Amino acid sequence: xxxxxxxxxxxxxxxxxxxxxxxxxxxxxxxxxxxxxxxxxxxxxxxxxxxxxxxxxxxxxxxxxxxxxxxxxxxxxxxxxxxxxxxxxxxxxxxxxxxxxxxxxxxxxxxxxxxxxxx
Length: 119
Fold this sequence. Notes:
Blueprint: E1 4-7, E2 10-12, E3 18-24, E4 33-39, E5 46-52, E6 57-59, E7 67-72, E8 77-82, E9 91-100, E10 105-109, E11 113-117
Parallel strand pairs: 2-11
Antiparallel strand pairs: 1-3, 3-8, 4-5, 4-9, 5-6, 7-8, 9-10, 9-11
């Protein structure tokens, strides 16, 4: 079992930046996929960014060029640098880790951190 704790959310003005961090209670070295999702009020949860164990990244179109996902194996953290934030980025952001074993898939979620973009 892996516990994930997100931090770094808060209130920011349009055009501002935030850096989200997801701390894992165990090593993430064997995680196959590390990702950030978000869920805005009244909307479904959506994938924002993901990074694979090989370093490949993928972003939803609306954040390309503004958000950057990274992972730190030494600290067991997955980070999301968010720049040029706009009100449409307002949501609860969740960290997600996937470990694909030979016979079973293990998936873990954090509790979420609120990001509010407003003037």
